[in-house]
Amino acid sequence: MESILRDGSIWLPQPRQGDAISNPAFELFFGGAKGGGKSDFILGDFLYDWEEWGVAWRGILFRREYKELEEIIHRSHEIYGKIPGAYYKGGDQRTWYLPAPYAKYPGYATLRLRNLRNMADVGEYNGHQYPWIGFDELTEHPTGGPYEFMIGCCRSAYGAPCRIRSTGNPGRPGHGWVKARFVDVAHPFELYTDPETGLTRCFIPSRLEDNKILIANDPDYERRLLHFEPHLRKALRYGDWSVVIGQVLSEFSSYKHVIRQAPLDQSWYKFAALDWGFAKPFAVLWFAVDGQGRVILYREWYGSSGDKDEGIRLGSKALAKKAWDMSVAEGVTTMVADPSIWQHKDEGATIAEYFEEVGWTMVKGENDRIIGLQKVHEYLQGLGIDGRPMFLVMENCHHWIRTVPYLCADPSDPEDINTDMEDHAYDATRYALMSEFTKKPHLLRRKQTLHPIKRKPYYDPMTYGIR
Fold it and tell me: Which residues pair with 100 in a beta bridge?
C-alpha cells in the first residue's frame, strides 16, 4: 500500500524537520529558537514508522506537567485527525490510536501523552517498553535523571527501530545538562557516539528561518520576538546556547572567572568544603585563599553516577577516608560542611564524626540560603586590587562549571536557587564563602601546617593561570 503519510495528505516536514526525521541517531535533540517547528517535528517523527509496524509501534510523548500537554494535544488533533480511522481517547488515557491494517504487525499503533515531572514519577514506567520515546520541551526538566531512566525503556520485542526524540529551547531550567549532552559533544548535525555505550546522539538546531510556514502565516512573529530583552532575544530568537534565561549568577563569565589549572603558592591558606549526598551527588571542593582574600576553587570531587542528579551511594566512612587521602599531603585538614551531617539519625556516630575519626577538623557550615547567595554574588562581582575577580575556578573543576553557572531561581522564592536543579557544587561553594576561612587569610596562613613531603612552590602567584 502506498503511504498515506508520504503523499502529503497528512503532513509533510519542512527541510530542517526532514533532516531531523531522517537522522539515524538513537537520541536526537531538535531545538533552539522559538518558532522553529519543534512540535510538528516531534509529532511527525512518530508517524514515520506507524504504517510499517502497526501494533508494534508504541510511543510515549512526555511533557513535565500535564497542563503543558494541552498545546501539543491540540496540534496532534490537527495532524493525526486527518488519518482515516484514527481516534483519540482523552481523560486519563490521553492516547492516540492509528490504524495500520497492512503493517508487519497489523493493528493500531499507539502514542501515549504523559507527564514526567521528576525521578519520583519514573517508577510508573518501570518495565514498560516503547520503541519510540519523545520529550517535548526537554529543557524544562531541571535534571537529566528522568530522561536517562527512560532510555532503559526504549526497546522493542518485535524488532521495531528504537529511538528517542526531544525538543527544547535554550535558557530553561535544564539548559546546562541538555547542552552538555547534545550541544557540547559535537558540531550540529554531526553524529556523536558515546564511548561507554556505543549509542549515538545528535543535535539539530532549529531557527525561525527554518519554519517557512509560520513566517508566511504570521509575518509579525519575528518582531514580537525582538521585543525581548537582549539576553532573551539571543536565546529565543536566535537559539543561542550561551544564554540562560532566569540564570541567577548572571555575572559569571568563563572568560573572567575560569583559569588554567596550575600549582598554588605554598603560603596560601587551603581548606575543603563538602555538600553531603548519597542517593544525590556529593560535592567535595578544595579552595585556596590568597593574600588579598581572593578565593580560588582548584579541585573538585563530584560523586555523580553521570551527568545527572544521581549519586554514587558511597558510604560516609569511605568518602571521608578518600577525601583525607586526597588532601593531607598538601596540608589540607580542615573542612567546612553541610550542617545536616551533624544530625543523629540513629544511635551510631554522625557523618561528621566519621570524618573527624580519619583526621578532619570539621566546621559546621552556615546554612542561611539567602545570605549565602548574596555572598556568592559578592565574590563573583568583586575585584581585587589587580582588577581580577575575587573568585576564580580552575578549568579542571568540570562539574562546577557544568552546573553552577546555569542555576536558576526558585519559582517560589526569587532570592534563592531552585533546589530541584543540580545545586550540590553550589551549596559547597556557599558553605566555603560564608566560612571564617575566607575572611582573614593573612592570619589563617599562620595556622596552616604543611605535610613534610610538600614541594616548594614554583608558581607565580600573580598570574593565577589566567588564559
Answer: 107
